[in-house]
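Here is the promised in-class demo. Please do not try to memorize the tokens; focus on the logic of going from shape to residues.
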């Protein structure tokens, strides 16, 4: 389908997630043509503002006539402007998060006071966001002085009104073209439709912290009469893990909604004999009863109450107990769900599905034939989830994504323009046999970055916006951290491995197609532990792999092949191409500037390898 052939007969949908890590997607006739987060264009990690730049890029890239847009699918019926106005996800420090707990939630929960976010954080209110200061002044005045917005239903309706007004102003469409999609169902639709189980009888699971009053659900999905059918088995709002992980992250001195993965990375360092007592404390809170999560002893709140429960325990003990509790709850519940659905293919999405260690334990279950975890199953993918959900509801047959390369497309002409302006005597350019030369440099222990083709969607770099190194020498991790990343010492890197070598290095619990997106974890075989030492967890020696196929990314596949021919290891250490605390790079200039300002040794662009003279003269 060529973009120039699009007309008002095509079914063109724009999907929008407008909250933490705001994201847009473009779907045409049931197929996702592109998806990108606002942070990639604004250069502000987890940007929660209206994703105008991301929407504009997708529309312009694909030559979409705005008058042909049939629907704008917006995830979440419930949405409050408070967090967006105070830039909760981008401008809050850890101290701010603690202040929120002490001055807002403690007062509301324990002292029954109606404390306003906008009053407590009035200095953080940001009116300078689209569609402009005057618009947001009006919203702030309404929220401050109109008591009707203290009532939940009124605030829900006001949230829809605000989002509709902004979308109408931007896209010049009528209000009847805007559809609000249930948060949980968006997760479920994305989990099922985006991947290898699309069209097959599947148990579809969603698990997250909160969204439209539901934070866990189970569905049966299958295809019938050329339509996707979904049947709800159960849902509820009291699943504890998403919020428990969030607030323990804060209590341990990290940023909630962002650094939960650091706790997961620390968990393997703690042995069960040390965390067993705290695990029992967690188990006293909630258990699985058939298809529901039931509180045995419900905490009064998820910060102060939990703070008392974990007080006096070591950092690693807390992480170990939390991770084990997470795995136990999920395993028991999902096994019970499968007993009811009878479908052994499982799809899972929601923020908790980002926990690759739990996904590994699920993948071992005999009850599960195939576990599919899509790219970035957290809320950033809900722009796609909204479009998929709307398609199912309206009997449009949705198509899976072939790969995660859905974002900004690097252009050779723009790279050439940068070279003319910025390349000086301290660089050497190679224009032939790029992958072979890069493989040699990698084998020599140098660290390269790669910015080629379309950016990967989501939180995991999959070769097109990656920092790459030989995985054989563990010392390279220290080199990468000192050169650019600044990661916590206990956090593992990941590996990109060719599909035909994946079973040589890993114990795979199902088809290699389920390991394309770094959303599943595996145990490594001895040869994997030896050859991929820098790209596996330093303690439990598991790996979060990207299994690369030639069909998905032929150029990256060739680079790993060339490296394998030299090193006899058909995999690379792969970590995201970004500075710590910043979004993954997006465009040509963004990539070059980070390469230039850091100690990275070289950068791979389309048909071009740029090396720093100082790096290759050592």
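The designed amino acids, position by position:
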């Amino acid at each position: 389908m060529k973009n120039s052939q699009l007309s008002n007969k095509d079914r063109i949908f724009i999907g929008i997630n407008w909250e933490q890590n705001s994201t847009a997607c473009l779907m045409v006739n049931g197929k996702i043509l592109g998806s990108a987060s606002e942070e990639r264009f604004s250069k502000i990690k987890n940007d929660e503002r209206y994703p105008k730049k991301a929407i504009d890029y997708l529309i312009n890239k694909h030559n979409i006539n705005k008058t042909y847009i049939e629907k704008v699918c917006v995830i979440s019926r419930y949405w409050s402007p408070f967090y967006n106005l105070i830039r909760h996800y981008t401008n809050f420090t850890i101290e701010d998060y603690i202040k929120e707990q002490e001055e807002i939630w403690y007062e509301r929960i324990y002292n029954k006071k109606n404390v306003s976010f906008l009053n407590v954080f009035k200095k953080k209110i940001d009116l300078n966001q689209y569609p402009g200061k005057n618009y947001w002044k009006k919203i702030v005045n309404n929220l401050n002085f109109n008591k009707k917005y203290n009532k939940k239903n009124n605030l829900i309706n006001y949230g829809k009104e605000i989002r509709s007004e902004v979308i109408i102003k931007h896209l010049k469409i009528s209000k009847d073209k805007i559809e609000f999609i249930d948060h949980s169902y968006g997760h479920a639709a994305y989990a099922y439709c985006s991947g290898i189980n699309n069209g097959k009888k599947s148990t579809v699971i969603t698990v997250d912290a909160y969204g439209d009053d539901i934070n866990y659900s189970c569905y049966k999905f299958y295809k019938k009469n050329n339509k996707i059918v979904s049947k709800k088995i159960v849902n509820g709002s009291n699943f504890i893990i998403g919020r428990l992980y969030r607030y323990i992250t804060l209590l341990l001195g990290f940023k909630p909604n962002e650094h939960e993965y650091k706790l997961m990375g620390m968990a393997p360092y703690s042995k069960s004999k040390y965390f067993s007592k705290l695990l029992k404390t967690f188990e006293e809170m909630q258990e699985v009863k058939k298809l529901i999560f039931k509180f045995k002893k419900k905490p009064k709140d998820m910060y102060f109450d939990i703070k008392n429960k974990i007080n006096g325990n070591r950092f690693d003990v807390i992480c170990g107990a939390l991770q084990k509790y997470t795995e136990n709850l999920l395993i028991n519940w999902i096994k019970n769900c499968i007993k009811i659905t009878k479908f052994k293919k499982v799809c899972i999405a929601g923020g908790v599905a980002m926990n690759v260690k739990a996904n590994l334990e699920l993948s071992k279950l005999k009850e599960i034939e195939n576990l599919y975890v899509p790219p970035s199953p957290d809320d950033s993918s809900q722009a796609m989830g909204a479009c998929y959900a709307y398609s199912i509801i309206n009997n449009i047959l949705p198509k899976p994504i072939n790969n995660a390369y859905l974002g900004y497309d690097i252009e050779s002409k723009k790279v050439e323009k940068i070279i003319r302006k910025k390349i000086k005597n301290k660089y050497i350019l190679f224009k032939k046999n790029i992958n072979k030369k890069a493989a040699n440099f990698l084998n020599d222990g140098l660290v390269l970055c790669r910015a080629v083709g379309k950016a990967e969607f989501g939180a995991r770099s999959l070769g097109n916006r990656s920092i790459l190194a030989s995985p054989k020498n563990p010392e390279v991790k220290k080199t990468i951290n000192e050169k650019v990343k600044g990661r916590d010492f206990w956090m593992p890197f990941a590996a990109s491995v060719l599909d035909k070598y994946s079973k040589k290095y890993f114990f795979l619990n199902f088809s290699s197609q389920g390991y394309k997106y770094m959303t599943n974890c595996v145990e490594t075989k001895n040869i994997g532990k030896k050859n991929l030492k820098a790209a596996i967890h330093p303690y439990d020696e598991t790996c979060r792999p990207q299994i690369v196929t030639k069909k998905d990314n032929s150029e990256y596949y060739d680079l790993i092949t060339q490296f394998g021919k030299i090193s006899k290891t058909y995999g690379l250490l792969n970590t995201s191409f970004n500075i710590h605390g910043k979004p993954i790079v997006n465009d040509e200039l963004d990539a070059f500037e980070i390469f230039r300002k850091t100690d990275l040794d070289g950068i791979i662009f389309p048909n071009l390898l740029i090396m720093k003279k100082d790096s290759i003269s050592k």
